[in-house]
Amino acid sequence: MSPTRISKRFEQLREKGEPGLVAYITAGDPSLERTPDLVFALERGGADFIELGVPFSDPIADGPVIQRGSARALANGTNVAKVLDIARRVREKSQIPLLLFSYMNPLLRYGFERLAKDAVAAGIDGCLLTDLSVEEAEHHLGALRTAGLDTVFLAAPTSPPERLALVARYSTGFIYLVSRTGVTGEQDTVSDAVGPLVAATRKLTSLPLAVGFGIAKARDAAVVGAIAEAVVVGSAFVRLIENNAASPDLDAKLEALARELKQGAVSARKKT
Amino acid sequence: MITSQPDAHGHFGPYGGRYVPEVLMNPLEELEQAYIAARKDPTFQAELNDLLANYAGRPTPLYYAKRLSTNLDGAEIYIKREDLLHTGAHKINNCLGQVLLARRMGKKRIIAETGAGQHGVATATVCALFGLKCRVYMGEEDMRRQRLNVFRMRLLGAEVVGVGTGSKTLKDAISEAMRDWVTNVADTYYLLGSALGSHPYPLMVRDFHSCIGIEAREQILKATGRLPDSIFACVGGGSNAIGIFHAFIGDASVKLIGIEAGGRGPELGEHAARMTGSLPGVLQGAYSYLLQDADGQVALTHSISAGLDYAMIGPEHAWLADRGRAEYVNCSDAEALDAACVLSRTEGLIPALESSHAVAEAIKQAPGAKGQIFIVSLSGRGDKDIDIYRENLKDLDEPDTHK
């Protein structure tokens, strides 16, 4: 498989000695029309990768903020096809790496073969499914990889070394490390579990590591940026969208938050 | 001979498996290992059997419903009396098994979901019995329809947490319980109440209820000298059904009939009849037949009985259906209510609304089945549903009624 925009961006970040910022937003929140502009705002603020959330009716891994974002997106009629439309509109102006972030069922219903072809054509670079374990992924991976999509899997503080090895074996592009046991949502501090999880995964793979779940502030981004290749932030962006949905300043506020987080992450490397 | 066992990764044919966030993968593995060890341990089995006999009230009788059979002038109908168990339904079988397992695993806190409240009451009961902290998640709509069970759980010392998201029913309660488990997995045991969710739950829940069918098989052979022709059981997730079916799976002559909730009608959203045209999908940890829309969003469901009001059928049932070993039909809200009245007045048994669906199908099939033997799983008694019966049978609820 030739390198995707994801691998290329990690390579550029490595050369610059800079941690990346992965920004999650739920596609279709606050509206399908607005989402491409929000992606551009995040990119201007310094986001390196965008996770486009495909909403699911029963998001078991998400806390209240992303649950509400998903409900708003579903009420706006968001589905896989419309998220791919958004990707096409982003691609008219930007080469920022795009990942589909979802649960199994909406993609299963769309069909993995069809999804793989349509997603690549729309400019999507990778795919991450919260409730798809590596064990169950086996016969879906072929379609995604053949089409040229990265398949990113999650590792967690509860994953013993043998599971970390499995996750590393099945992941391409990067590995998403879940900072703590729990659902998505902002926390006051970064979990103590992150350091050991990064260290344990590092022993098993040369893939870039991105750390997410609970990271909301520049200070937290700095803690993660010091030890991982990328910081993932989701709920903080979705909450900002929720609170400013009708505001003409939404794009500017999103851009400012992305800038603050990116600078936080970058500051950590400068010190060391 | 047809058998029904999951593969090493918990798949019943293509169904089941483990579709959960990575955080839960190792805890599920540990649970599976603990369960496999317990299953082989004679002291575990002895403790469980003692509780089932002396605390829960097993074996339950297999009762010949003579007046019902005579009135229908067809099949001889036998009723497996799970309604006589402590807490009023079969759910206690599974709760006793799982609470012993939780103790073995050193877990101090138990969480559960509940739909009709029967599993919540059974969980609260076993937690009181062993002095464990208990939190039960319940949809706010179900809390409204099953108020008595909410009170019972609280009386037993459990904390009942209302879930106000989605349809505010069982599905949403499971999602919230899973979020709690993901967060507190180190010290918390998730006591799942139906043959649903990720491996090993469908296997474990089925095993803990398999006593229903093992007893019924011995009892019917003793009573009639032969195997039954048909077995009827209601199917929400499908725990009482898989419990009574399992001992008969190898008996090719015995028809296994699961009854789903036909609700108010065939339109999506009006029923919970997964086996009439739905496609398989992934929900809350498992792959099985799932009521969903064209975008893969889980459909809303409806049933008069909270315990059948769920969008997915247990994975082992999906596999039995695909192989033609069991068949799945549905009964409407109205048919279930009628059947409850019939059973109450011919046998003096007021059934739970869930079980009324099984009774309804047996009543439908009995007249054309002279010489046949039916077993109906009466999975629970109707006390918890009295408010719903009152709402729907208003003419009986007048102070001066003489009906």
Q: Beta-strand percentage of chain B?
A: 15-25%
Structural category of chain A: alpha/beta
Count of β-strands of chain A = 9
Task: Determine Rg of chain B (CA atoms, Å).
Answer: 20 Å
Backbone shape of chain B: globular
Pick out the low-confidence regions of chain A: none
CATH C-level label of chain A: Alpha Beta
What is the H-and-E element order of chain B? EEHHEHEHEHEHHEHEHEHEEEHEHHEH
- What is the CATH superfamily classification of chain A? Aldolase class I
Largest interface, C-beta closer than 8 angstroms, per-chain residues: A-B, 39 and 38 residues
N-to-C SSE series of chain A?
A: HEHEHHEHHEHEEHEHEHEHH
Strand order of the largest sheet of chain B: 3-4-14-9-10-13
Concise account of the structure shown:
The complex is a heterodimer of chains A (272) and B (403). By secondary structure, chain A is of the alpha/beta class.
Show the helix and strand layout.
The complex is a heterodimer of chains A (272) and B (403).
Chain A (H helix, E strand, L loop, with lengths): L4 H12 L3 E7 L8 H11 L3 E5 L10 H12 L4 H12 L6 E5 L1 H7 L1 H11 L3 E4 L4 H14 L2 E2 L2 E2 L5 H10 L4 E4 L15 H9 L6 E4 L5 H8 L4 E4 L1 H9 L6 H22 L1
Parallel strand pairs in A: 1-2, 1-9, 2-3, 3-4, 4-5, 6-7, 7-8, 8-9
Chain B lengths: L10 E2 L2 E5 L2 H19 L1 H15 L5 E3 L1 H7 L3 E5 L10 H14 L4 E6 L3 H13 L2 E7 H6 L1 H9 L3 E5 L6 H14 L4 E3 L10 H24 L5 E5 L4 H7 L9 E9 L15 E5 L1 E6 L24 H8 L3 E7 H15 L5 H13 L7 E5 L8 H7 L11
Parallel strand pairs in B: 4-14, 5-6, 5-8, 6-7, 9-10, 9-14, 10-13
Antiparallel strand pairs in B: 1-2, 2-12, 3-4, 11-12
Helix pairs in contact in B: 2-4, 3-12, 4-5, 4-9, 5-7, 9-10, 12-13
Description of the structure:
The complex is a heterodimer of chains A (272) and B (403). Helices cover 50% and strands 14% of the residues of chain A. Chain A is globular and about 45 Å long. The longest helix of chain A is centred in the last third of the chain and has 22 residues, at 250-271. Chain A has helices spanning 5-16, 35-45, 64-75, 80-91, 104-110, 112-122, 134-147, 161-170, 194-202, 218-225, 235-243, 250-271; strands at 20-26, 49-53, 98-102, 126-129, 150-151, 154-155, 175-178, 209-212, 230-233. Chain A is built from twelve helices and nine strands. Chain A has a single domain, classed as TIM Barrel (Alpha-Beta Barrel), CATH 3.20.20.70. A nine-stranded parallel beta sheet of chain A has the order 5-4-3-2-1-9-8-7-6. The mean pLDDT of chain A is 96. Chain A is an alpha/beta fold. Chain B is α/β, with parallel strands linked by helices. In chain B, the strands form three sheets. Chain B has a six-stranded mixed beta sheet, with helices on both faces. A four-stranded antiparallel beta sheet of chain B has the order 1-2-12-11. In chain B, helix 2 (42-56) packs across helix 4 and helix 5 (118-130) packs parallel to helix 7 (147-155). Chain B is globular, with a radius of gyration of 20 Å. The model of chain B has no long low-confidence stretch (mean pLDDT 96).
